[in-house]
Amino acid sequence: CSSDLLTVRANYNINRAISICQGDTFTLPNGQPVTMPGVYTSRYLSLYGCDSIINTILSVRQNYTITNNAEVCQGDQFTLPGGTVTGTAGTYTQSFLSVYGCDSTVNTILSVRPDYTISQNVSICRGSTYILPDNISVTNAGNYTSHLTTVFGCDSIINTHLTVSNNITNTVYRRICQGQ
Predict the structure, then answer these.
(1) Please, which residues have CB within 8 angstroms of residue 73's CB and are 6 or more apart in sequence?
(2) Tens digit of pLDDT for each residue in 8-40?
(3) Among candidate residues 19, 92, 21, the one with its CA nearest the CA of residue 63
(4) Chain segment 73-92, per-residue pLDDT in tens
(5) Is the pTM of the predicted complex or chain greater than 0.70?
(6) CA atoms within 13 A of residue 140's CA, in its CB half-sphere
(7) CB atoms within 10 A of CB 72
(8) Which of 35, 41, 129, 168 has its CA 20 to 30 A from that of 177?
């Protein structure tokens, strides 16, 4: 009596999920380079001549470019996203990696708002009052500094030099004849 043994060899069906970054290329098991998301099927014969399938589920992660506008007052400092500190106007580009390891670019456009210092000379008559730019009333001659804030929140300094003039008194002598 003879008995024939039948051996059943397995077919393989393998699914693998792969993520790449935007702009990168992935090479499939069959050597084909791909850049677009999708499901790619590669067919092979196993060692025993059976079908083997590898499904590559390719996802493409996005690269990010973010632009931020920022403002500081003259003399102040700004901390860029990477930790660099600057007080100079300009566009700063910094590269980072996203949580998926893809490129992320942050552009910071930094504007520096000016501080203003203005000097003015003002004269009033003795006994008069002058209202300074910071709404303080003064009557004495002197130099006064008013600290104000611009519409952008920056310093504005107005130096006022106040002089007080004496009142002029004129005495006019007139003569008239009796009866006139």
Answers:
(1) 112, 113, 115, 152, 153, 154, 155
(2) 667 788 899 999 999 999 999 889 999 999 999
(3) 21
(4) 999 999 999 899 999 999 99
(5) no
(6) 3
(7) 19
(8) 168
